[in-house]
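Query structure, 455 tokens:
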């Protein structure tokens, strides 16, 4: 990491060229930053070039530029321009304006979708403007006041995310200390930390995310308000927090992220029951949560599929178990009923913190429900279970439970073997289990066939 940047910019050398860029930007020319256009997606380059041809300014900005300088492979490229969303739409046929709080344009280029945003301005001069609405807590409900490249840089979250690159002339522009901070592996918020966290508390989570993902140190003034203002997160709608949770846990650094979220007292505003079990729960509950993040990180490294349903299922499992124990002992419910009741309670509490879209909620509940079916393998049940679309996830979940110290009577090993052996051996394994026990589904009465003399 940073090798290229360090090679090119010997610290004793002057980093910036003498020429001043637009709006007083510091200009770093191609020979001093080492970004290669061949590392940038064709779509991004073409979109910038088309915006230039149409007479607008346009730059690559944000994570794309940051990761190019870090020699990471950017996963996406964001573009900033002085064209308004409507003007962007006139330049590209495949453009769609999205978002209300923060309007952006999605431009489709082949299979790529590139985010194009209009330069933002602060809200000082626009307090009565409907494009700059604030909540009673000072959180920006709408952030659509447009400005120029300098004001845009001032509205970005961290200095390392506020570097602008023009692939046509190879110039990198900066207005603060982004490049120095990248070299020093420092995360520094742009502007006054208290104000910036207050107007958008999601930046608290972004600080944690970048510190975990990049392994950067959070500079003291950026760091100290995080713990203190973690409660600002309760002002953020559950749907937006869900989007952030995805980025926090599905980017390959879930374990480091979880540790930092706890350290900065933020976990309680995302997953209160998980936070409680990490602080005060039993060892196996803590293991369950940390094994889930470790496994997710490993799977991402191996390019395997990961789903938020699995992470959610694991994070909420300790609360599920506690609630099930209570339902069975005090309410005298059956295991099945206890699970249903527990799931209702646990899910409804979680939904008031982070939303969980149905497409993840349903599989999460299926993973839980299958935990009760996995021990019941007699007769034709085992083979039928393997046909269940959620079997694989449920089996992985069972292994996680076993790995974390939950007593499952060797069930994980049994299922592992069952999937590896021949059909004949499978039959033997099932036979060894003996006759089916436990609740059986009541047989449906066959519908009476209409008799010949029926009318
Ligand atoms: P990633 O690699 O995870 O995509 P990123 O920095 O590109 O990281 P995005 O969420 O794609 O993150 O945002 C793109 C850019 O938009 C950021 O780099 C930052 O400049 C700006 N940005 C995003 N969210 C905020 C925010 N809440 N406040 C201020 N600026 C933001
Ligand atoms: Mg990005």
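Result returned for the query:
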């Amino acid at each position: 990491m940073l090798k290229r940047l360090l090679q090119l910019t010997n610290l004793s050398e002057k980093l910036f060229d003498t020429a001043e860029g637009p709006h007083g930007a510091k200009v770093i020319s191609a020979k001093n930053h080492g970004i290669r256009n061949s590392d940038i997606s064709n779509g991004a380059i073409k979109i910038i070039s088309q915006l230039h041809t149409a007479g607008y300014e346009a730059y690559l900005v944000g994570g794309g530029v940051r990761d190019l300088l870090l020699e990471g492979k950017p996963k996406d490229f964001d573009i900033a321009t002085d064209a308004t969303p409507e003007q962007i739409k006139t330049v590209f046929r495949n453009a769609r304006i999205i978002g209300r709080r923060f309007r952006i344009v999605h431009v489709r280029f082949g299979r790529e979708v590139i985010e194009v945003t209009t330069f933002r301005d602060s809200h000082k001069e626009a307090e009565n403007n409907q494009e700059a609405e604030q909540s009673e807590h000072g959180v920006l409900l709408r952030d659509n006041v447009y400005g120029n490249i300098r004001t845009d840089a001032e509205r970005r979250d961290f200095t390392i995310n506020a570097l602008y690159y023009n692939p046509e002339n190879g110039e990198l522009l900066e207005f603060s200390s982004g490049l120095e901070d990248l070299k020093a592996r420092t995360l520094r918020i742009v502007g006054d930390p208290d104000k910036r966290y207050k107007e958008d508390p999601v930046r608290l989570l972004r600080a944690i995310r970048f510190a975990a993902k990049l392994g950067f140190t959070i500079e003291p003034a950026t760091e100290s308000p995080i713990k203190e203002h973690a409660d600002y997160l309760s002002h953020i709608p559950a749907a937006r927090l869900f989007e952030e949770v995805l980025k926090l846990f599905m980017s390959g650094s879930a374990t480091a992220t979880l540790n930092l979220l706890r350290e900065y007292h933020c976990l309680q505003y995302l997953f209160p029951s998980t936070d409680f079990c990490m602080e005060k729960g039993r060892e196996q509950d803590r293991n369950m949560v940390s094994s889930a993040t470790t496994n997710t990180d490993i799977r991402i490294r191996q390019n395997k599929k990961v789903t938020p349903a699995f992470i959610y299922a694991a994070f909420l499992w300790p609360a599920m178990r506690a609630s099930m124990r209570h339902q069975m002992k005090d309410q005298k419910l059956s295991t099945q009923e206890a699970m249903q009741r527990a799931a209702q309670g646990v899910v409804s509490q979680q939904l008031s913190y982070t939303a969980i879209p149905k497409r993840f909620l349903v599989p999460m509940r299926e993973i839980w429900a299958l935990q009760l079916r996995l021990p019941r393998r007699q007769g034709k049940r085992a083979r039928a279970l393997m046909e269940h679309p959620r079997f694989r996830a449920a089996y992985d979940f069972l292994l996680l439970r076993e790995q974390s110290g939950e007593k499952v009577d060797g069930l994980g090993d049994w299922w592992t073997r069952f999937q590896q052996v021949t059909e004949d051996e499978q039959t033997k394994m099932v036979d060894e289990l003996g006759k089916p026990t436990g609740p059986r589904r009541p047989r449906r009465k066959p519908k009476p066939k209409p008799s010949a003399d029926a009318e």
